[in-house]
Amino acid sequence: MSGDPNIPSALFGGAAAKTIGEKRTPRTDGMREYLLNVIPEVSSDRVRCYTQSYRETESEPTIVRRAKALRNMLQNMSIYKLDGELIVGNTSRHPRGVELFPEYEVEWIERELDGVPYHFAERPGDRYIIDDEVKQELKGLFPYWHGKTHCEHVKSMFPEVIKKAWDMHVIDSYWLLQGGDGHITINYRKLLERGIRGTIEEIEEELPKVDLCEPDGISKKLFYDAALISLEAAVDYAARYAEFALERAGKEKNPERQKELKKIAEICRKVPYHPVESFREAVQSIWFLQALIQIETNGHSISLGRLDQTLYPYYRKDIEEGVLTIEGAAEILQCFWLKLFTVNKIRDWDSTHFFLGYQVFQNITIGGQLYGGKDAANELSFLILGVQKAIKLTMPSISFRFFDGTTEEFLQAAIDVIGIGGGQPALYSDECVIPALVNRGITYEDAVNWSVVGCVEPIIEGKQSYRPNGAAFISILKLLEIVLHGGEDPATGYNLLPIGKDLSTYASFDDVMEHWERQAKFYTKQHIIMDTIIDKAMEEASPNPLVSSFVDDCIRRGKTIKQGGAVYDYCGPLIVGVANVGDSLAAIKKLIFEEQILNGKQVLHALDTDFDDETTTPTGGEIQQMLLCAPKYGNDDDYVDSLTAEVLDLFCKELPNYRTTRYGRGPRGGIWHASCSTVSANIPFGLSVGATPDGRKAGMPTADTTSPTQGMDTKGPLSTMKSVAKIPNILCSGGNLFNMKFSPLVLQDQGGRSKFAALIRTFLGDLKGMHVQFNMVDGDTLRDAKEHPEEYPDLMVRVAGYSALFTTLDPKLQDDIINRTEQLAI
Amino acid sequence: MSSDHALVHLDLDAELVIFNMQGYSIHDGPGIRTVVFLKGCPLVCAWCSNPESQNPKPELGVIEARCQRCGKCLPGCPVHGISIAENERVVTNRSLCTGCGTCELVCSHKARQVFGRRITVGDLMREIIKDMPFYIRSGGGVTFSGGEPTLQHEALAELLKACQGKLIHTAIETCGYVPDRTKLESILEHLDLVLYDVKCIDDEKHKQLTGVSNRTILENARRISATGKKMIVRVPLIPGINDSQADIQQIGEFVLSLGSVRELDLLPYHELGKSKYEMLGKDYALDGASPISPDRVGEFKSLLESYGLKCEVC
Q: Which of A10, A720, A755, B294 keeps 20 to 30 A from B34, CA to CA?
């Protein structure tokens, strides 16, 4: 339906729909309260089902084993239904609970079950409870997996240099050894229009055409076989809910409730197998698949795409036929939001640092434009904003597509939700993203239909492979530290590409930049090698037939996504520490080479002693002070902004020179590209980097995303936005992220809200920034919440590309958020 | 470049002393504004929230709580104005201090901060122009505040001309105490909007509270109003000083008498400037004053609106 310029927007007036959506009903209010207070629990269902199935299928092909294991899980996992739920289906035994994925890795789970570094229930953040029996069962099941996991498989392929670069904390992607890629939006439109039945029919059409004499014949057939097993299992899973609801209906005395349960049973018999005929069926069908994909892969960032477009035809039809009211639609969506909130994923404690806040990054995109530049916002877009305001939880995330034609009414509706805090919705610019995607070879027709997965990654829903950005990291501040030390990492002593001179002996600033570029390219290559090995291992050992069935053109090509089934395919690293490197280079250029106030030897010594050596002249503290006074990115100062842009530009230009494992196997693209979405990785990466020439002390967090270094943007939001707009956002087609924190005061009257809208329009429209998200909390509130977490159970903050409950975060991250410059309008 | 061409008849080297520039100001004229704070003021209002604006020259502020008494600032001071007292406190002789900022640079605890810097018209314009996209999109522009901006009327006139040349909307915030009316007139023609402070109508009270009579101020208000220049009257609401019904009534009637002015902003008193008094070694006259309740402010707003005035609370 997307791309149909004849769909009218806002039939009834969007603002009214939003107002209706933002009131919780007694039903959703009760469920929300219950879920918010649940402490997530670990289940052994999936480990049991998968271990059993893998044991029985050892002689069979991997892809079929994967499908059969999924089937075993879907047939035997515990299912539940919360009181009052209209949308049903669960990803784990417990609400907000987690399943484990032993085929990827078990070592960390065994370690943490023994309390190293923490027992699940005693973690400093993102705690989980686990029943003793479950613990014992898991300990009994895990030995089967020793020597068989994805993680071990990958590590056995890593060359020595990769292991070293990893130990140096230049590159990291540990979470990709523990689970699947995720980061995808399947073709939900196709699901709604044709049902799983349609996909089965498609496969049945292709199967007879498979020529087993051809080299890829057998691989195609195995994919189809596995896809059919998975799809049928998905239908059976829904049928279990139909039976469950009927059984409950039989025991129910209240006639209203009984009717409700029977309705649920009726819908679960129908979808996701059949095409949907109503708004509610559409939501239920989407949720089933959303849940099932989580069970199949453990990859986070599985997203919903342009939900306001996908659901709109069904919404409009039901409203026009009088079988649905806006209030009814709002309640269904609220129930859906609460289901999305129940999805959870446990990671090892070290990786949890990178993704704090029980996050699995399920994004819903609204607004933007249709083919030809027509405004895509409709009442459902407004209703979704209202529902977000009503439910106000950390998941889902709402991504608001801005374009020059976005109406003031719609932008104001978004600002109203921003004003309640929690960092929702995040705002993205079509004016930057669409050309960025077209530049990568995506057709205009598809580019205009982009949506967000994960934190900020633009994707073409239903047509693009996993991980539009790699969600694996390169810490470029560590890279800079290495350059300053002659190629050597001071922490490990490794020197993988010796330079022969260091900061005390570089002849000129150009000399510094030349070696910076050489090292940057070298470690970029190491990152590519690492991620390519991971991709190869994923392709061979953990293919995902279910998700592949709903990504074009996997079925036509007879290929999983990892074999090159998707129409578009890109990947690329997350670049961490952009602002720090820009600031550091500016300080080196200005103080050492231009003004010659300090020499390289003095600075290097000050860095190595963490600015604490008071015996030198000037003292370490004085040197730090001078470095802090050098120009800083975030203040609209071309001197440093141009260096920062140059730093990022290097990666933007270098990455597309490399090919992914899918290159030439079907998809358009097949190359690597850049992104600066750091998630919360700026904290762990900061820990391993010593003092740096931007004046940063050893171990402190790096700057997050494309935002200026914490506290260094002192000239106010206009200057900060100007700086951020100067870096090559348009080449960061993997998605860029920019956090701003505002005092709620700026939105207290209509005048303030209009000016805030103008601020957004200038940044996203005129300056063509890619993304901005606003934290609307003041420092005092956050400090108080840190002291008295019990008083702030639902205080949400935007961490990076996602929102988290502030009180569940690690104290160090809490401090980081507090310290980000507060942009107060006076 | 065309931009330089437009500036060709201006004295770009004229200097001003400013103490702050604030982007994204949303209460000082239409749209998103960049406010430039000029230093120096003929008034000394008891409630002034920018005490660092009063002295026309750069001056030193000290945050005592941050001072670690390390003594690093002593040797560099060119006038030998810093010493360590018997109680180990660092003492600055303000009568010697020129506000040069040498001690600010060496203080690693950020305890010393100079308010005010000299900047040329050309350099300031380059800063102002940076925020142009935001002015265009929001219908905003630049507001010159202070202090009292007309004290630096010559350089200010050059700046305003430069802004006009770039089609940037211009405003000033003035206390109106400009005895030499030609100074006011020299800048008025380059302004799009005047934000005009009226504190109270009772002259005796005015003298007591600001140090000057309000006769010139009220006279200038009438004069500007007569030119038809767009003007908004701004009233700082100060507890115990001008927050009686009678005060507000008198102000409302005065504004009505101006004829062409129909807008009035109320600026309720706040204590945000208090810490700066300590930094400057000045006493805060209003210590202990409690803010005016929002309800009371609302009553004043209604009262003024009953005169047919458009009234906003900033």
A: B294
Rounded to whole angstroms, how far apart are CA atoms B314 and A109? 57
CA B236, CA B196: separation in Å to the nearest integer? 11
Q: Which of A758, A776, A667, A705 is CA-nearest to residue A442?
A: A667
Q: Looking at chain B, which residue has its C-alpha nearest residue A756?
A: B32
Give the pLDDT score at A1: 38
pLDDT, average across residues B266-277? 80
Give the global pTM. Answer: 0.93
Which pLDDT score, from 0 to 100, does residue A394 have?
A: 86
The dihedral formed by the CA atoms of A488, A489, A490 and A492, expressed in degrees to the nearest 10:
-120
Q: Which of A522, A531, A569 is nearest to A733 (CA)?
A: A569
Question: Averaging pLDDT over each range in B102-116, B203-217, B278-292, which range is the top one?
Answer: B203-217
User: Strand locations in A454-517, DSSP E?
Assistant: 457-460, 473-475
- pLDDT per residue as tens digits for the range A443-469: 999 999 999 998 899 999 999 999 888
Of B21, B25, B107, the CB nearest to A825: B25
Please give the single-letter amino acid code of residue A101.
F
Residues of chain B found within 8 Å of residue A755, distances taken between Cβ atoms: 24, 26, 31-32, 138, 140
Low-confidence ranges of chain A (pLDDT < 50): 1-10, 800-802, 821-826
Q: What is the DSSP letter of B83?
A: E
Does residue A232 contact residue A242 with C-beta atoms inside 8 Å? Answer: no
How many angstroms away from the CA of A826 is the closest CA of chain B? 6
pLDDT tens profile B64-81: 877 889 888 999 899 999
In terms of DSSP bridges, do strands A771-775 and A739-741 run parallel, antiparallel, or are they unpaired? parallel
What pLDDT shows up at residue A826? 32
Asked if pLDDT for residue B257 goes beyond 50, the answer is yes
Query: Which of B21, B26, B139 is the closest to A752 by Cβ?
Result: B26
| B306, B253 Cβ separation under 8 angstroms | no
How many Å apart are CA A706 and CA A709, to the nearest integer? Answer: 9
| A622, A719, A767 member nearest B23 (Cβ) | A719
What's the pLDDT score for residue A115? 96
The answer, for A762 touching chain B at a CB cutoff of 8 Å, is yes
CB A694 within 8 A of CB A590: no
Which residue in A has a C-alpha nearest to residue B49's C-alpha? A826
Residue B296 token pair:
């009371």
Q: Among B32, B102, B104, which would you mutate to test the A interface (most chain A Cβ atoms within 10 Å of its Cβ)?
A: B32
| Residue type present at position A276 | V
SS3 B93: coil
Mean pLDDT of all residues in B207-222? 94
Residues 6+ apart with CB under 8 A from A391: A24, A28, A32, A334, A337, A338, A341
What is the sign, positive or negative, of the torsion defined by CA atoms of B238, B239, B241, B242?
A: positive
Strand ranges inside B164-281, DSSP E: 169-174, 193-197, 231-237, 263-268
d(CA A784, CA A781): 5
Residue appearing with tokens 């505002």: A742
> Distance between CA B309 and CA B256 in Å, rounded?
8
Question: Which residue is associated with the tokens 């405003």?
Answer: B171
Q: What are phi and psi of B240, to 5 degrees?
A: 80, 0
Per-residue pLDDT, A203: 98
